[in-house]
Amino acid sequence: MNPNRLLFLLVLLVTTVVNGQFYNKEVSGEIDLTEENQMFVFKGLISNKTPINTSIQYKFSIIYPQSGDDELQKEETEGRLVLDPNERIEVLSESIQADENLNVIILFLVYDTDGNLVGKDRKVIKNGLFVGDETPVSVIQPDSNLDVAKSKEDGLVLKGIVVEDTKTKPGSDFYKEFYSNYLSKNINGEEIVTIKEVLALGRNTKIEVYVAEKKVFEFFIRPASEYLKQMSQYSIMQVMRQLDFNNKNQNTVQRY
Questions:
Q1: Which tens digits make up the pLDDT trace of 106-126?
Q2: How many domains are contained in the chain?
Q3: Three-class SS of 210-248
């Protein structure tokens, strides 16, 4: 049998489109946004919805997507803590001067001790005004190691965010390959795409690709670069298909 045909059949076996994993179920991350005295004030809140003590780590990012520079400008704050049962706690507070030209994304990610993303929230300020957290925004390619151009003139301005949640070098290599393809195809996705690596059988891990909360592709990780490139191509196809479906569904809802 043709090796490519065999690989394609293998992908069909390990790829299943299922209901998406919902975050913020047991531990939630929340951004409280207010405007006070010409300042936007952001508070990061974490809630433990379980009856047991829970250890978590978090990352709070303030991202300036249209800085005019090649490098993505962002400010990050990270921390770790143990939450008591049913505890809700404010872990940080940040403020930004309100301005009519301000464009910023606030991203709050909460992980368990194994590095799995369990809670998240996102807020967007566009032209000095708070807009819905699903509003598409332009984001310049943030990884300078990728072998792609980075300027707006080269067409690498995209909508939405691709989040990396990997644990191994092959997982990180896949993320870079996927993101390079995502940018080179100039995909204007309005939903956050998440590349998540999880434990599988034995010492193996597998990659799960999400569009918003919906899993669209998964496969067992292997370090071979050619394999990762092929998996990246299959993943991109599934992501584009889901984004197209979401856009058509959104248009149908708006029409009626």
A1: 888 898 888 788 888 888 888
A2: 1
A3: EECCEEEEEEECCCCHHHHHHHHHHHHHHHHHHHHHHHH
7: left (phi over 0), alpha (psi -120 to 50) or beta: alpha
Distances 23 to 27, 29, 139, 156 between C-alpha atoms, Å: 8, 9, 23, 29
Instruction: Report DSSP letters for 51-81, one per residue.
Output: SS-EEEEEEEEEEETT-SSSSPEEEEEEEEE
Q: Which structural domain range is residue 136 located in? A: 3-255
Q: Which of the two residues, 2 and 236, has the higher pLDDT score?
A: 236
Here the tokens at position 87 are 């505890």
Tokens encoding 13: 């076996």
Residue 142 maps to which CATH number? 2.60.40.2420
What sign does the dihedral 12-13-19-21 (CA atoms) show?
Answer: negative
Q: What is the pTM of this model?
A: 0.50
Tens of pLDDT along 144-179? 333 333 333 333 233 557 888 888 999 989 998 998
